[in-house]
Amino acid sequence: MRPRRLSSPLSLLALLGAALASVIVTGAGAAQAAERTAAGPPTGRVVVIGIDGLQWSDVTQAGMPTLFNLARHGSIASLVTRAVINDTCPADGWLTLNSGTRSFSGRVMQYPAGTSSATSLITLPQTYCTPLPDTPQRAGSYDIPNFSAFTAPNNAYSYAPVFGSLAAPITATGGCVAASGPGALLGAADAHGHVANYLGAPDALTQSDLSQCALTLVDLGGVTALPPPAAAIQPQPPIDRVYPYAALDSELGSLISRLPTGTTVVVAGLDDSTTEPQLHALLVSGAAQTTATSGGTSTTSFDGKHWLYASSTRHAGLVQTLDLTPSLLHWVGLTPRQISAADPKSFIGAQISTRGNAPSDPAGAIVTQAWLNTANQTFAQTNGRFITWMAHAITILAWAAGLVFAAVRWLPQRYSPGRFDHRFPRLRRWRTGLTGAVVVWATVLGAVAPASFLANLVNWSATFAPGPILYATIASISALLAAAAFAACRLVPPLRGQPLAPAGLLGLLTLLIIAADVATGSRLQAQTPFGLSYVIAGRFYGIGNSAVGVYCAAAMIGSAWLASLLMPRQGPGEIPAHTWPHTFREAAEGWLRRAAPGRLGLSRLPDATRSERRRALIVVAAVALVAVAACGYPGWGAKFGGTIAMVPGFVLLLFLIAGLRITWRKVLVVAISGVVVVSGFAVLNYLQPAGQRSHFGNFVASIFDGGWTGTIHRKIDTNLASINNDWFSHYVPWILFWTLLAIVAPRLVGARSLALAYAREPFVRCALWLALITVAIGWFVDDSGILVPKMALFLAAPLGVLSVALTLRPDAVEADGASADASAADPVRRVQDPVAGGQSVGDQ
């Protein structure tokens, strides 16, 4: 029998509508059933035990046997406790756990203990931690006195913590949160400072007490130099930490023996022992069943075979206090819908799971985590001295290079090349030696940045002298990279005689190292001078704040060099003659002409054929695609400001290679190109599930929930405050200003040698211009502020000096002497279009 045809399209629409309605009704019924199933109280039981200042270096089999054996059957990690400022007081740590957001309890100023009324006249008050609240005399509900004194200091910052975020979802579903100890009161309090279940002192807890609630917080105290105002915050920690922690370990063992069966145990050092921030210990033992957004359940076993892991750091064995809050809510058995119903604001932290294989021996796992903190302390103690050393090194290099360049340029002009060789043969050799010394010095300094990343291939934190070995490794690798660059320029025929080749090679090498590192987990940047500092907690993956300026400058210098390989690179080789204006109107018209972008050093490159330009465009576009993807892709570099800064530089370079005249309209296109690209990355990241987003997608989400203004204010405040990071930061704006003049109008600042170098090698000026533009944009759009150009100077300045020194090498200067003498002998001779020959009117 033939099937019956539908009588009309309306019948088809009716049939589709009925099918859709049945699907919706069925789906709604299933969703309601799932919601009813998930609406019960928490089914898990978790006990969090806080020990002040606990580090993995404190945990030994002899000193803390309970915690050591617990690590045998539990998963561990280093805990980043940073809250708002560098050091974290006990109240800061517990409030951060309470809100799931960086929180600050304030500080108090008092005179040190023992200060009398007489000595107070000559004694400065010192900074103390805000004391923890007093514990009640009996168990039961408790209202923390003057709770607003702990929360009010957060009004001065833009993190906007919502206190009670840990307790609210549990109590809203019929569960409870219990507390024991002064710090635990702050962790278990609601938004008004009310603690529903206080159990008493930790040593008096019974198994019945520990079974009352789904989540129990216990504060055992610990070793800390940040106590209530009976002692100052400044003194160093106790020399011997063994006995205090041995006593705490005994109390920990007694507490664990009273825990009910099936309890998930969390032991955490939530705050610092000193004003020097540290990485602290975190251990999770037991199993936890969690429910995903889709409704499926999974069980995570914390059995010691794997490291703890959180997507907020993307490093196995490294988590934040911010990750503990959402993790505890999931571990007690709450669903994502139950958590969001109590607090619609999403948590900053991520859920803690396990990843990677940990050593089977707990001693090996603990030592590995102790080495990580050693690397952190080495970075904290030596990074300031490294910045000072590099600042002095490039300053001396710049002055020495200026003197040598003046000698290289002035002496051949004072004496003709033939007379100079004849009358001063030794001086000629001396001049050549000085130029060679500048070249070697600049090359080694330019190799320090890539060498600092490669130094992490050596496990220097496990050695007997981590600091000296780290910097000795950096120095050795720098020398090897410099030698390799010179060898490549001598042995590879296309690179011979190219002044930009060594700088371009080092720039491309730096670009490739950072790009490969961010694509493989950012291991080479960890705790290195140009890399990431875990304890600062600003960034754990991607391109760090110290590396973004280096990355942008390296990309511009390397790309400009690649373009010079594929296009004619030599300029006219002579400086345009200077003509002074005779009238004010003539001077004003000259400055108006200079106001065009194409006249401010953004000159057209030497003429090239269409095929040469096409090849250069393809190669540079490929490099730009790789560099921008590595920087902006949320799964790799995830660097907001770096992407905005780098894209305009590449677009401008492509315009120059294509032979386009740079107009103000093209400048506008260049300016918005970075914002367009980074917006695309952010929107694509926002479309992913909430748990898989980086800060790109979270920022787009904050636009819809209204929280983006706080983020913008915090970024602006951090940017403006960066000028006070160290002494060298105050000089960076002036260095950038004089660098701008040296690029745009070198003769205006008396740098005639630079004008000659630009006349010979226009790509040298192009590379310096692009590097300056990108790091200047990065200064204003990245939250790290002045750190972007400051760190970029340590790469761009040596490579710029290197390129100019090779351009002005004595043999090249003397080869150019005939043309210079000819220009001087013919006063009528003028360069009609200096811009077309790679020149800027500022050179005149």
Descriptive overview:
The chain is α/β, with parallel strands linked by helices and 844 residues long. It contains 29 helices and 14 strands. The strands form 3 sheets. Strands 1, 2, 5, 6, 7, 8, 9, 10, 11 and 13 form a 10-stranded mixed sheet that branches. It has a two-stranded antiparallel ribbon with strand order 3-4. Strands 12-14 form a two-stranded antiparallel ribbon. The chain is elongated. It starts with 8 loop residues before the first helix and ends in a 19-residue tail after the last helix.
Broad shape: elongated
Task: Give the structural class.
Answer: alpha/beta
Task: Give the termini distance in whole angstroms.
Answer: 95 Å
Number of strands: 14
Largest sheet descriptor: 10 strands, mixed
- Percent range for β-strand residues: 5-15%
Low-confidence stretches: 1-38, 226-239, 813-844
Summarize the structure.
This protein is an alpha/beta fold and 844 residues long. It is built from 29 helices and 14 strands.
